[in-house]
Amino acid sequence: MSNTNKNRTTVEIFGAQYVILGTESTSHIRLVASLVNDKMREINSKNPSLDVSKLAVLTAVNAVNDYLKMKDQLERLHSDKQKEKD
C-alpha cells in the first residue's frame, strides 16, 4: 500500500502529540483533532477523576452517538425529499 497521496500531520490532543496519516487535507486533520481535543476537555471538566483511557472511550462513544444521530437525520431528510418527488 502506497503512502504517496497521504498527508502526515502532527497534532496535539489532550496534551499528547499524535502523528495522523490520512488522505484528507492537513487543515481537515487539524480540525478533527481540535474537535476531539475540545470534546475530551469538555468531558474531563465534568468527570475530572476519569483516567485518559476511559476519557478517550467516552469521547469516542459521544462522537459515534453524534454521528449516528446525524446519519439518521440525513436519511430521514433524504426519504422526505424522495416522497416529495413521488
Automatic annotation (TrEMBL):
Keyword Cytoplasm: yes
Cell compartment(s), UniProt: Cytoplasm
Keywords noted in UniProt: Cell cycle, Cell division, Cytoplasm, Septation
Main location: cytoplasm
Gene Ontology biological-process entries: cell division
Pfam entry (one): ZapA
Signal peptide: none
Domain of life: Bacteria
Function (record text): Activator of cell division through the inhibition of FtsZ GTPase activity, therefore promoting FtsZ assembly into bundles of protofilaments necessary for the formation of the division Z ring. It is recruited early at mid-cell but it is not essential for cell division.
Subunit structure comment from the entry: Homodimer. Interacts with FtsZ.
Identification of the protein by name: Cell division protein ZapA
Organism per entry: Neobacillus pocheonensis
